[in-house]
Design brief:
mainly alpha; elongated; two-stranded antiparallel sheet; 2 domains; 6 helices
Length: about 140
Amino acid sequence: MKDSWTANQLKFMEWLSLPRYDRLPPTQEMFAESIGTTNLTLWRWKKLLGFQEAVNALARATIGTKLPEVYGALLREAEKGSYQHIKLVLELSGDYVETQRQEITGKNGESLATKPDFSGLTTEQLDALIALAIARSQDRTSAA
């Protein structure tokens, strides 16, 4: 892994760490021209040991600055009733951990034990659990 990068390599890493629609200039060829190099040079830089890892680290750092907006969008969709978003809110808040139902049977096929699931909860209980998770997530988001 390379310890020091040139100024142009760092610029290229930053450019690559952005989503494609946020990159200016919009193409790699145009970027190469903007820093006075060629597309072939950029291709070679991408092959350097540690280069892609450095790009990924920059991209991960960017995610941290966007989390409040991401959590807000997640909560808005959950409040609209989207099952996937509700589930994710509950998972993030720690109020839901997916479990698999396993039935243990004896030699004669009779059930010996089962793991609990949410199938016994009423709609009101599930709604209360969802509301609690959303409130906790909003508290965490506003505290951040």
